[in-house]
Amino acid sequence: MIDFIEQRCWEFVHAYQTQEESDMLWFTISFEDGWTKFMVWYQKIVEGIATICVGNPFQINDIYERLDALERKIKTFCPQFFIDGDTNLWIIKPSNCCSGIGIILERRLKNILKTIKDTNSFNKSYIIQKYIERPLLISKVKVDLRQYFLVTNTNPIQIWMYKEGYVRFCSKKFTVQDLGEEIHLSNVRVQSMNRKYRIAGVPEECMWDYKQFKEYLKSIKKGDKAPKNGIAQGHYCISLGLGYVSLLNSVPQLGIYWWVCKQIL
């Protein structure tokens, strides 16, 4: 198991060092059997059913030093490495729903596969993303920023951005040990049913405008982090995202991608 982890991580590092697109898209199909075995091992370990046994203290030190160096290397290519967490939590969203309807959080691969296989006439595809296990918290609850964009053309890319946005609050203290929607989904529909049970510090409507958010950042000496009207980064991120969509659509033989899982099983 340790060898498998180390090999896959070095492949990840190599892909970013060489900037080879074929490597960056990973080898999901090529290593399907290996990944299946790894997930079985992983689940047994995190659930306390099994442990990793190492022969002697010298091996432990050697493995620790190798993987510690590898982790530092990975962090240089992943600026947001720290937000992933360590409980293997993923979020599964129906591609044709809104307001938090049908969204689930899951750790076990077999349950994720069951969800996307058990489709009906309404849900034929899903978006699967690694869940941010260490999100932005205010008053100990998860929040997100809602910003509106309108894409009127993709070739050439033409994007319109509404300058104001708002901050949405969940109503219960954040934890990855409880997967309740009132803790993890800040959608208005979800929180309108839970806001009367909100914890102290959460606004009555579970919402702020950007002005209130900026004032909060200033109060904690983070005023330089406040969102600015018309931020160019937002345009760049959407442009980059559209570029990746074009790239993925050009190589359909890769099947299931790590961030989008269409119902093809």
Please provide a written account of the structure.
There is one protein chain. The protein is an alpha+beta fold and 265 residues long. The protein is built from nine helices and ten strands. The chain has a four-stranded antiparallel β-sheet with strand order 2-1-3-10, covered by helices on one side. A four-stranded antiparallel β-sheet has the order 4-5-8-9. The protein has a two-stranded antiparallel sheet with strand order 6-7. A hairpin with a 2-residue loop joins strand 4 and strand 5. It starts with a helix and ends with a strand.
Characterize the main sheet.
Answer: 4 strands, antiparallel
Specify the number of helices: 9
Poorly predicted parts: 244-265
Physical arrangement of strands within the biggest beta sheet: 2-1-3-10
Terminal CA distance reads: 27 Å
Structural class by helix and strand composition: alpha+beta
Task: Give the overall silhouette.
Answer: globular
**Radius of gyration, CA atoms, in whole angstroms:** 21 Å
* Strand-residue proportion: 15-25%
Give the tally of β-strands: 10
Write the H/E string, N to C: HHHHEEHEEEEEEHHEHHE
Portion of residues in helices? 25-40%
Mean pLDDT: 78
